[in-house]
């Protein structure tokens, strides 16, 4: 009887350890991207101002393939570029036979949405605003359910074309396009 109880305890401990082995710490790149300039992606909308050219000044969306369709010059690659890089790219294209010395300004009008799922009141797609944290996103999504693990969540983030998932605290900041998954607590 004593050996059966110790065998049972050993199997229980082993099963608990194997259950935790799937957890990996958050990759370093996950938090490093927070200190870098914002890079555009599909779903972002930018306000492009070409000074003294009212016909070109407008709001443009980055399409699913990562391009911005701009009058006169056509498709301009935008995915992975900062607003300053996009300014330069548009100005360079306009210099090629359209305008002598274009003065272009690009600002982000609307960020791509975030997604909140799991143990929240109303899972779904929500608008991103600068300064958004996990806790604020959960509040927007109707708060935690009674079964939710409120200490940490899993975030899936696209970093330089590579999709990564990491476990973070609820006080951590979010980026546009992040997917937040609130897990169910064990007890």
From TrEMBL:
<dbReference type="InterPro" id="IPR019554">
    <property type="entry name" value="Soluble_ligand-bd"/>
</dbReference>
<feature type="domain" description="Soluble ligand binding">
    <location>
        <begin position="114"/>
        <end position="164"/>
    </location>
</feature>
<protein>
    <submittedName>
        <fullName>Polysaccharide biosynthesis/export family protein</fullName>
    </submittedName>
</protein>
<dbReference type="Pfam" id="PF02563">
    <property type="entry name" value="Poly_export"/>
</dbReference>
<feature type="signal peptide">
    <location>
        <begin position="1"/>
        <end position="24"/>
    </location>
</feature>
<feature type="domain" description="Polysaccharide export protein N-terminal">
    <location>
        <begin position="35"/>
        <end position="108"/>
    </location>
</feature>
<dbReference type="InterPro" id="IPR049712">
    <property type="entry name" value="Poly_export"/>
</dbReference>
<dbReference type="Pfam" id="PF10531">
    <property type="entry name" value="SLBB"/>
</dbReference>
<dbReference type="InterPro" id="IPR003715">
    <property type="entry name" value="Poly_export_N"/>
</dbReference>
<keyword id="KW-0732">Signal</keyword>
């Amino acid at each position: 009887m004593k050996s059966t109880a110790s065998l049972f305890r050993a199997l229980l401990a082993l099963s608990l350890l194997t259950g935790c082995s799937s957890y990996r710490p958050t990759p370093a790149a996950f938090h490093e991207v927070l200190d870098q300039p914002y890079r555009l992606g599909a779903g972002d909308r930018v306000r492009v101002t070409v000074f003294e050219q009212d016909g070109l000044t407008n709001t443009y969306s980055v399409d699913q393939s990562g391009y911005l369709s701009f009058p006169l010059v056509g498709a301009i690659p935008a995915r992975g570029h900062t607003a300053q890089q996009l300014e330069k790219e548009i100005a360079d294209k306009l210099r090629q036979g359209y305008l002598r010395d274009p003065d272009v300004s690009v600002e982000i009008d609307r960020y791509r949405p975030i997604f909140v799922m799991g143990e929240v009141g109303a899972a779904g797609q929500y608008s991103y605003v600068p300064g958004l944290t996990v806790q604020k996103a959960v509040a927007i999504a109707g708060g935690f359910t009674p079964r939710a693990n409120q200490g940490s969540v899993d975030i899936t983030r696209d970093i330089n074309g590579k999709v990564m998932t990491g476990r973070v605290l609820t006080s951590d900041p979010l980026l546009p396009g992040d997917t937040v998954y609130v897990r169910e607590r064990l007890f």
